[in-house]
Amino acid sequence: MHKLQIDIVSDIACPWCAIGYARLEQAMKQLGPDYAFTVQWRAFELNPYHSGEGEPILPALARKYGRSEHEMRAAQSNIMTIAKDLGVNFEKLQERLTANTFDAHRLVKWAGEQGQQTAMKQALFEAYFGKALNVSDRDVLLGCVETLGLDVEQAGKVLDSDQFADAVREDEETYQKAGVSSVPAFIINRKYLISGAQDPEVLVKAMQDISAEAPN
User: Fold this and answer.
1) How do residues 66-102 score in pLDDT, each as one tens digit?
2) What domains can you pick out in the chain, each with its CATH number?
3) Half-sphere exposure of 66 toward its Cβ, with a 13 Å CA cutoff?
4) What span, in angstroms and rounded, lies between the C-alpha atoms of 45 and 164?
5) Which residues of the chain are modeled with pLDDT < 70?
6) Which regions of the chain does DSSP assign to beta strands (E)?
7) 176: CB partners within 8 A, 6+ apart
8) Residues above pLDDT 90, as percent of the chain
9) In what order do the strands lie in the sheet with 192-195?
10) How far apart are CA 193 and CA 32, in angstroms?
């Protein structure tokens, strides 16, 4: 049995992170029963200083990357096509607003204590990219909790406190120091870095190579 620990450094606001995980799922399925995976989501904020009202995503991206809104719309359309082929809901990708994701990351940590970390992450992706909901809004976050059947009252107490704030900041500091500057980043067995939303075939080959080197 090959055992692989996969730490996924990602942000809820990153569409390639949702695509990257969908591709990772395909890769893990292809590798089959001889492989055992432990997946941990690690926090990263693309826009950590965001506050106040959100801005429409296309002009925000155009300004960030120094490109036209037309170019960004074309790029986003391409991302939507890729997501659709993977069965990931990106229907409202171009209608979303910019948002702060710190509280969402705290809820992912909280859900992780109940074995629902990946499910929470996917619910947040669905809310933001599929429905263009504000993932910094308390009610939206609690709606994601409710869809998973988790304790909404307990989640509200987490959001009303500073619980898991240190854990989120620790992730961000750790992986920034490790040189992670873009997401998604997949760190295998706390040693090997795979950057970007690679195709399943690339991930399969990388994990096979890593397994061949690592004692199990």
Assistant:
1) 999 999 999 999 999 999 999 999 999 999 999 999 9
2) 2-213 (3.40.30.10)
3) 0
4) 15
5) 214-216
6) 2-10, 35-43, 185-188, 192-195
7) none
8) 95
9) 35-43, 2-10, 185-188, 192-195
10) 22
The span from the CA of 75 to the CA of 194, in Å, is: 23
The amino acid sitting at 91 is: E
| φ, ψ for residue 178, nearest 5 deg | -80, -5
Q: What residue type is assigned to position 115 of the chain?
A: G
Beta bridge mates, 192:
188
Residue 2, number of CB atoms within 10 A of its CB = 15
Considering the chain, what percentage of its residues have pLDDT values greater than 70?
99
Nearest CA among 22, 56, 26, 21 for reference residue 42: 21
Q: What is the CB-side half-sphere exposure of residue 104 using CA atoms within 13 A?
A: 34
* Closest CA relative to residue 97, chosen from 50, 49, 147, 48: 50
Cα(170)–Cα(144) distance, integer angstroms: 24
Residues in a beta bridge with 9: 42, 185
Residue 162: how many other CB atoms lie within 10 Å: 9
Strands 35-43 vs 2-10: parallel, antiparallel or unpaired: parallel
| 186 touches 7 (CB < 8 A) | yes
Asked whether the whole model's pTM tops 0.90, one would answer yes
